[in-house]
Amino acid sequence: MDTIFKMSLYKYTIFTILIVFVNSCSNTNSSVAPPKEPIWLSNPQKLSDDKLTAVGCATTHIDGVDAQKKLAISRAINEIALQKQAKISTVTYRKKSYNKGEVSKEITKSSLQEVENLNLSTKVMEYYHKPNSRDICVWVVEVP
To answer: Is residue 55 part of a domain?
Structure first.
């Protein structure tokens, strides 16, 4: 009887050690906070020292990450150009027609952006990958 008790105590001890070992190996650090969103993402002018700045974002691109980054940079540079001296014309056309008592409406809006003799020198300050999406955002600053 004493041998049976020692054998079951031995099995219980081995089982307990095994459970503790498995739990310690599988413990993940779930308290790691996601990276903080940079200040420039919501307020690009805050860190700019009176320079023109802009943020451009782009989602997944069919041609890969490099094309996605180029698109984000292009959007930011276009935003700086708009801030600098772009002429913007927006035209809205509204069309309403009646056919056998039914009304159909159509609205067409077009925007023309025109920039003449504008030389921009810009610098990419920082990239940010949004953790909950595949978006890449870039902070661009005009340099003198």
So the answer is: yes
- The answer as to whether 119 is a domain residue is yes
| Pairing label, strands 102-114, 87-99 | antiparallel
* Three-class HEC string of 73-115: HHHHHHHHHHHHHCEEEEEEEEEEEEECCEEEEEEEEEEEEEC
What secondary structure letter does DSSP report for 20? H
Is 21 part of any domain? no
pTM of the model: 0.57
d(CA 66, CA 57): 13
Q: Return d(Cα 28, Cα 97) in angstroms, integer.
A: 63
Q: For residue range 68-121, what is the model confidence (pLDDT) as tens digits?
A: 999 999 999 888 888 887 665 666 777 777 777 787 777 666 656 566 667 778
Q: Report the number of distinct structural domains present in the chain.
A: 1
Tokens of residue 96, six digits? 């309403």
Domain with 74 in it: 36-98+105-142
